[in-house]
């Protein structure tokens, strides 16, 4: 699984569909509560994804396409926050809008973004979440924006 490659699809799809873009974001994984997929702090430079959910989805999904769609959906939602869609409901709507215009109607990213991941994968709610005390920085992320770094 390559967060950087998935994020490049996120950035291209948001730019193509909405005409918005932003550079210089980083990614970190943390042990967050299971009802929180990820977060981006307003004005921040990092998207923090829930490592508990990432690990669980790697086992619950039945294909690489389905798992990558989960990552795409979470990253798109947080990226949309970072380009100005601060309202949570609006970010959810726009995530679905971008996915629908990027993929076919039955694509897992469309299904995930138009529904509720916790209803689609109810086993997620039985997981033991964390308190965000552990943070792991992903070193290769948004490399298209930082190609000057070796």
UniProtKB/TrEMBL annotation:
It comes from the Archaea. This is SprT-like domain-containing protein.
């Amino acid at each position: 699984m390559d967060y950087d490659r998935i994020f490049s699809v996120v950035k291209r799809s948001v730019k193509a569909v909405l005409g918005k873009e932003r550079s210089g974001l980083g990614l970190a994984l943390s042990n967050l509560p299971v009802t929180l997929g990820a977060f981006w702090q307003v004005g921040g430079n990092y998207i923090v994804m829930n490592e508990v959910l990432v690990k669980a989805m790697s086992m619950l999904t039945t294909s690489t396409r389905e798992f990558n769609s989960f990552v795409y959906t979470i990253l798109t939602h947080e990226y949309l926050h970072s380009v100005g869609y601060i309202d949570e409901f609006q970010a959810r709507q726009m995530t679905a809008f971008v996915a629908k215009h990027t993929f076919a109607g039955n694509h897992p990213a469309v299904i995930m973004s138009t529904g509720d991941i916790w209803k689609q994968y109810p086993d997620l709610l039985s997981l033991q979440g964390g308190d965000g005390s552990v943070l792991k920085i992903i070193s290769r992320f948004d490399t298209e924006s930082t190609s000057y770094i070796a």
